[in-house]
Each structure stands twice: as structure tokens, then as C-alpha cells.
């Protein structure tokens, strides 16, 4: 018999990751997530935000990547792949698309102030116009709702032009939703104004 020949060891291919639900989403962050599919410790993963043309770099034993900074109320598409310890990549797995939340609006001066009406105004920093929802209260703690605007599209004002009592202060606040109807947490307080 001859002597043994030394063979070089090698690795089996990594399993392609599977898509998972997105994690944390804010107006500037999207957390892409995936399932590792029984890959052993040491497997590396590479995620891309295709829309923003950014990536995670190779991450060992990762199951997510936080893509930031992003633009508010904007759709982003993600994909991920894995590689084994011989640096052989799997095909990309599509992680689907989602929107960042819309940024909260800013306060602006009230206008069209009359005996029974006030026009609430606000500023919008979102590149794609979101929907706004305004409430009118008769106290600064926002516990006694007088009226609301319903969801408003493509506007930064709500003219509450009737139904208010003269010489009375009313407080307004506004919230926003993005293009997939995800409402941001919290309100922007627009302040109070007397009729």
C-alpha cells in the first residue's frame, strides 16, 4: 500500500437565508431581518438596501441589519445572502420592501382666526406627502376633544372655520401616516389660540 495522500478539507455550502418580518422602523431607520435556516456558527451574512445602495458588510452569525440614515416616508427594498467559511456565497434572498415612517410635522402660526373658527397650520419635511390627522381640544392637556379633521391628503392646514366659541382658547395637535398607512407614535402639538 502507498502512504496516505493528504486531502484538503472543505466546507459544504451555506443555506440561503429566508425572509422575515421587518423589525424596528422609524422615519430614519429600517431593521431588515432574516432566518438563518440551520446554518452553523461562523456563517456570514451580507444584507443590502438596494434603494439606498448601502450594505451591512459581511456579518458573522447575524439575523438582522439596521439600515440608517434613511429618508422619511420612502420605500426601500432589501436583500440578503450567506457564505460559508470558504467564502462561497449563496444566491440573494429578497427581503421585500417597506416604507420608513413619516416624520412628525412642525408647528406653524395659526391663521384665519375668527369668532368661531381657527385655521391650524403645520410644516412638513417629508419628501413624499403623507396624510395628516388634526385634533382640536378645549384644554392644553388634550383630554377634551372638540373636533378632528379626519385624514387629510396633500395639505399642511386644517381650517376649523365653524363651531368654536368666541373669546375661547383652543389647542391643536397633529399626527401623520406614511404611504402604507403606518401611523407614527405620538403627536406634534401645534399650541393654543384664542378665537
What does this structure look like?
The structure is a single chain. It contains no helices and 15 strands. The chain has 195 residues and is mainly β. The strands form 4 sheets. Strands 3, 4, 5, 7 and 8 form a 5-stranded antiparallel sheet that branches. A 4-stranded antiparallel sheet has the order 12-11-14-15, with no helix packed on it. Strands 1-2-6 form a 3-stranded antiparallel sheet, with no helix packed on it. Strand 11 (131-137) and strand 12 (145-153) form a beta hairpin. It is rod-shaped. The mean pLDDT is 93.
Radius of gyration: 26 Å
Shape designation = rod-shaped
Question: Could you state the order of secondary-structure elements as H and E?
Answer: EEEEEEEEEEEEEEE
Roughly what is the average pLDDT, rounded to an integer?
93
In short:
This protein is mostly beta strands and 195 residues long.
List the helices and strands and how they pair.
Layout: E1 18-19, E2 30-35, E3 44-49, E4 54-55, E5 59-60, E6 64-67, E7 75-83, E8 93-99, E9 106-107, E10 118-123, E11 131-137, E12 145-153, E13 157-160, E14 169-177, E15 188-194
Please name the defining characteristics of this protein.
195 residues; rod-shaped; 5-stranded antiparallel β-sheet; 4-stranded antiparallel β-sheet; 15 strands
Amino acid at each position: 500500500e502507498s502512504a496516505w495522500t493528504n486531502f484538503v478539507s472543505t466546507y459544504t455550502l451555506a443555506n440561503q437565508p429566508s425572509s422575515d418580518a421587518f423589525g424596528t422602523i422609524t422615519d430614519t431607520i429600517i431593521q431588515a431581518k432574516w432566518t438563518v435556516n440551520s446554518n452553523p456558527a461562523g456563517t456570514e451574512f451580507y444584507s443590502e438596501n438596494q434603494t439606498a445602495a448601502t450594505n451591512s458588510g459581511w456579518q458573522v452569525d447575524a439575523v438582522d441589519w439596521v439600515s440608517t440614515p434613511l429618508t422619511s416616508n420612502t420605500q426601500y427594498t432589501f436583500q440578503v445572502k450567506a457564505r460559508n467559511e470558504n467564502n462561497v456565497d449563496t444566491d440573494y434572498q429578497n427581503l421585500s420592501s417597506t416604507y420608513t415612517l413619516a416624520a412628525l410635522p412642525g408647528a406653524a402660526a395659526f391663521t384665519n382666526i375668527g369668532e368661531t373658527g381657527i385655521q391650524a397650520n403645520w410644516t412638513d419635511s417629508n419628501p413624499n406627502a403623507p396624510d395628516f390627522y388634526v385634533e382640536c381640544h378645549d384644554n392644553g392637556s388634550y383630554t377634551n376633544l372638540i373636533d378632528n379633521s379626519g385624514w387629510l391628503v396633500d395639505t399642511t392646514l386644517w381650517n376649523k372655520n365653524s363651531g368654536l366659541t368666541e373669546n375661547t382658547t383652543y389647542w391643536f395637535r397633529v399626527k401623520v401616516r406614511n404611504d402604507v398607512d403606518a401611523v407614527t407614535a405620538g403627536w406634534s402639538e401645534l399650541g393654543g389660540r384664542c378665537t
